[in-house]
Amino acid sequence: MVPNIASDYYIPDIELFFRFLAVLAFIAYHTLFDSLPTQGSIGKVICKLVVVDASGERLSAGRALGRNAGKILSGLICCLGFFCVLWDSHRQGLHDNLAKTYVIKKKG
Questions:
Q1: I need a surface site. Which of 4, 47, 72, 95 has the fewest CB within 10 A?
Q2: Is the dihedral of CA 63, 65, 69, 75 positive or negative?
Q3: 10 Å Cβ neighbour count for 103?
Q4: Cβ–Cβ under 8 Å, residues 96 and 102
Q5: pTM over 0.85
Q6: Smallest Cα–Cα separation from 67: which of 38, 39, 103, 31?
């Protein structure tokens, strides 16, 4: 019988650690870019979109962190929080609604 090397050295704690690290990297990346003068990730810059608060201003780091941590909540149940944009009058996802933020077309 041939030993299954992959299962012999499988360590669930390491997998969990790397998943947690990936979530932290996702939140950090989007928080950084949402609070920079670009007001959004590289994809939003390409699509000429910006993330703003209720007064139309750039997000603070704290609000950007709350928005991006809220994305975890948006994705928990079959990503329904992201589909809120389909029926919300302001086209906000659950994370945007919780953080009181908006994704709008960039002026000019």
A1: 4
A2: positive
A3: 20
A4: yes
A5: no
A6: 31
